[in-house]
Specification:
single chain; 114 residues; alpha+beta; four-stranded mixed beta sheet; elongated
């Protein structure tokens, strides 16, 4: 029974486990922790970041995806340095059944300077 639940969970969420979407929308990054920093031009850094993502894209598919604990990532389709991450707390931990949302802004030198 647990295996069936895990299989159905994976089927339901595997397509949205990691996606790119327009996080900024028409109004900018409303409610985003690093909103002020997102107004700065990143220019050439986006090309370098795009190359890094192409190399590491398959790593996103390996993020945990289980009913007990999962990681979901949304990368902005216009700025790959802007992401939103949701992590669900693992069972039998103080974080169990919690959902934790993180705004991520990669530094301008990433991936050369993490």
């Amino acid at each position: 029974r647990v295996e069936v639940l895990e299989e159905k969970f994976t089927e339901a969420f595997e397509d949205i486990h990691f996606e790119q979407s327009d996080l900024g929308g028409e109004e900018g990054y409303v409610g985003y922790s690093f909103r002020e920093e997102t107004t700065k031009d990143v220019g050439a850094g986006q090309k370098q970041l795009a190359k890094a993502f192409k190399r590491e894209w398959k790593l996103f598919a390996e993020l945990p995806l289980y009913p007990q604990a999962s990681v979901f990532v949304r990368a902005d389709e216009n700025r790959m340095d802007v992401m939103k991450v949701i992590i669900t707390g693992p069972e039998e931990s103080p974080y169990a059944f919690g959902m934790f949302v993180f705004d991520v802004l990669l530094p301008s030198g990433y991936p050369d300077h993490p």
